[in-house]
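Listing 4. Sequential folding, example run.
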Amino acid sequence: MLRNSLPTTNNLIQRNIIPPNVQLCAGGCGKIADIDHLFLSCDFFGHLWHGIFNWLGFITVPPEHVSNHFLQFENLGGFHKNIRLVFNLIWLACVWVVWSEINARVFRQQEDSLQTLLDKIKLQSYWWLKAKRINFASTYHMWWLNPLACLGIIL
């Protein structure tokens, strides 16, 4: 993703795999689907990040490019390395859920709401965090309500 090599419609058109007239976003916004658009600026999927920042308790203006967005997200709040790794995990959960949703829309004609996707991100990040940190003692309910408190961060 950070190298812009995912099979987005824009990349598939550039590789002559699909015709140029099939380049609209799976989010339904009617715009060209390149990597930055799909994950950050799409009228549908872009709003997901606002929900994530809200959940984490941060107010920010996200960058327009995926690589810059990753770096900004990783360094939210300027916390130490262990917390930055958790932010990486949350960012990756967001990307995974968005990519899975794009594929569900394209290949199965199934759509989830923004709230459902946000809930999936919270759950996915919780599962990954529990798998990565065996001693992570917070419940999913606590994680869902206040992830920073689960990490020992009081803002």
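-- end of first protein; second protein begins --
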Amino acid sequence: MSDDAPAMFQGTIHGLRTVPTRGVVQVTVECKIEDQAKVAKIAIHGAWVAVALLKSPPEESMKAKGKRTWHELSSAEQAGITANDPVFWKYFGSADEHDAAIRIRKFCGVLSRAELNTQETAKQRWEELHSKFTAWKLAG
């Protein structure tokens, strides 16, 4: 790659957080270690970059590692992961993981997260809650 050629690499989004004091969103991207030189070429503080969703996300690489995408997880698994998120605790007014889990079950009208996989109304309530939480995070 010549010095004037654009540095491009493929990666996956692994983090998103808002920085309200600066009015920005930070995105964490993971890529292959072999692409480190390409990343270093553009990883200059303040450099403008572009991010685009690829038509064919690297789902195959996730499956090879035994990882599933968010949408491949059951509603119960999603709720368990979300209950562990301190940002969700703030959003939902929870004190900790245990409190968040209780509040999720109460909001969805179930006694066990497993019921989110079997009761359609509960699943819809979970999806609504998670969508609102995601929108809240993105809004900062």
